[in-house]
Amino acid sequence: MTDCSSSPAATTAPWAPDSWKDKPIKQDVVYDDPQELEAVVARVATLPPLVSSPEIDRLRAQLKDVAEGRAFLLQGGDCAESFDYCNPAAIEDKLKVLLQMSLVLIWGMRLPVVRIARMAGQYAKPRSSPYETINGEKILSYRGDNVNSIDPACRRPDPQRLLSAYFHSASTVNYVRLLLAAGFADIHQPKAWDLGHVRNKDIRREYQTIVNRLTDSLGFMEVIGATDTTLSALNTVDLYTSHEALLLDYEQALTRPMPKTLVASTSRKPYEPSTPPRESLAPDLCDWYNLSAHFIWIGDRTRQLDGAHVEYFRGVKNPVGVKVGPSMEAEELVRVLDILDPLFEPGRVTLITRYGAGKIGDFLPAHIKAVQKTNHKPVWCCDPCHGNTTTAPSGHKTRSFDAIISEITSSIAIHSDLGSRLSGVHLELTGEHVTECTGGSQELSHSDLPNNYQTFCDPRLNYEQSLDIAFKIAKVYES
Ligand code: PEP
Ligand code: MN
């Protein structure tokens, strides 16, 4: 048997933001005009970062807590963000559902919740086939708004869309920051905390009980003179951004060096603009951060050990996710961890498992056992969406609420039986009242799907179904 406790497989080859270019790449986009791509990427490389390295370090520290069982991770958002979702209402709705879900989880689990939105950059999509057939015509598949258009007439990959993706991400991040700074997440703020149109009486009652008890407790703290700092800390929350880092030219353009000495300093303010000129940085004196988002992940289709994506990911300081599906061998999983986490940092890697409710029992135990034989301490996170996608008789891609819950509860139980812990969930959801997944307290059926089916890609849990899930998870951990 091999000794997995050290990291013999970790690569010692030098890394650079472009070393991925020497590796085989999957899901690559072929542009008609490579020079135009080069010019766009060069422009993105001159633009300001979207997030800061101290924010990323803060998330790293929080994910360490998650990996060690002191916090829970909630990651969620659209399958594919569209440039059109960059509007105040859509952003507020998504923020609101994530905040409300996290409140339910915090209350039920009595643990802090780390919130990461699939937002402000979740544009690129891996596809099972580069082509699709629409009305008998074979055309290029939609690859996400940063590549081509959902409109079948505009499927040519257009490099200018990368620039547009940058500005839509910037605008989205800016609005999230503005909302949080203006007190959107303050528990007294009805816009964020009211249940809106949720009809289900049980959800309304249970949720309102939590909010009332929380506001009562806060009122009590004010009366007894709890310090201002304690209370003002409750007026806002951390919300991190994330996306699948699929288009490596773009990711590379936003990968910036930070001198290790500056990074280590705790006295820096979060927004201190300190991106020094590249030429002045010796490679061994700096850390590289992907400043397009706080957290990035590798999809199930691009996680080859010798591939370009794993090569890129191993060199950035950001905490990273890896999707883990039925095709992942246990040994391969250990190798991925060795490459991405050579220093055995708890929480450096989040394993986002996505097998399907019917398959999780066949794969998760071996994956957990293989990792337990190593010194890696990843965050184990369940994505109960991607292994449970089906096609309704109407042709709509859908997911059943029951299958989603079943994968989550199986995951919790399997981890617990093996002395491990499920520490997070990764969900495709929206704050809107779409009809894309079946079931939940609204009991949506296949025949309801056409009523408000909006997704360009995978089906998302709607607002009410998302809250349903949060209550269900909180209850499993309570019991
Ligand atoms: C996704 O998260 O939208 C996705 C494509 O997932 P996976 O890589 O797990 O298939
Ligand atoms: Mn998806």
UniProtKB/TrEMBL annotation:
Reaction catalyzed: D-erythrose 4-phosphate + phosphoenolpyruvate + H2O = 7-phospho-2-dehydro-3-deoxy-D-arabino-heptonate + phosphate
Keyword flag Iron-sulfur: no
Amino-acid biosynthesis among keywords: yes
Pathway(s) where this gene product acts: Metabolic intermediate biosynthesis; chorismate biosynthesis; chorismate from D-erythrose 4-phosphate and phosphoenolpyruvate: step 1/7
Compositional bias (Low complexity): 1-18
Keywords, comma-separated and alphabetical: Amino-acid biosynthesis, Aromatic amino acid biosynthesis, Transferase
Enzyme Commission designation: 2.5.1.54
Coiled-coil blocks: none
Sequence segments annotated as region (Disordered): 1-21
Recorded family membership: Belongs to the class-II DAHP synthase family.
Name this protein carries in UniProt: Phospho-2-dehydro-3-deoxyheptonate aldolase
Organism: Coemansia umbellata
